[in-house]
Design brief:
three-stranded antiparallel beta sheet; 5 helices
Length: 149
């Protein structure tokens, strides 16, 4: 009987197995598609993160002392591990910043950030952004664009 099932004569079991496997694969594929969708704001954040890493690498290459290079390597790894994407930005304010001539952004709390005009370390949306700000400030990489009124 199995000889005929493989040839398609009595392929109902083969059909059910194929359909079951296809269903499992489609569930995995749709799950991955949902994970890979990012917003425009997330894209800006990821670009900012990459710009910071590139600038730190450039600074590292100019340093001569081993301790300075090790500190920069630590900071580069730390920036790489930061989780900066928030997904929904309706309650946040995205502040444009200048990182050595390249545009980037920081995310502030929409209401609390008004106090300091969405500048500085105060009222950043989470601890990861505070760490990013500290690193940017440490190497004098950050400046702000004029805010539109």
């Amino acid at each position: 009987m199995s000889r005929y099932a493989k040839k398609g004569h009595d392929g109902s079991y083969r059909y059910y197995i194929d359909e079951y496997e296809r269903k499992l694969l489609m569930e995995k594929i749709s799950g991955l598609e949902n994970e890979l969708i990012i917003t425009d704001q997330d894209e800006q954040i990821l670009e900012t993160k990459q710009v910071v890493i590139n600038e730190l690498i450039e600074i590292r290459q100019k340093k001569k002392f081993k301790k300075q290079k090790e500190k920069l390597e630590t900071d580069i790894k730390q920036v790489g591990q930061l989780n900066l994407c928030m997904g929904d930005y309706t309650t946040y304010y995205i502040q444009k910043i200048n990182i050595k001539g390249v545009s980037g952004c920081l995310v502030y709390d929409l209401e609390k950030g008004k106090e300091n005009n969405y500048m500085g370390e105060l009222n950043l949306i989470n601890e990861d952004y505070s760490i990013l700000y500290q690193i940017l400030n440490r190497y004098d990489l950050i400046s702000y664009y004029e805010r539109e009124k």
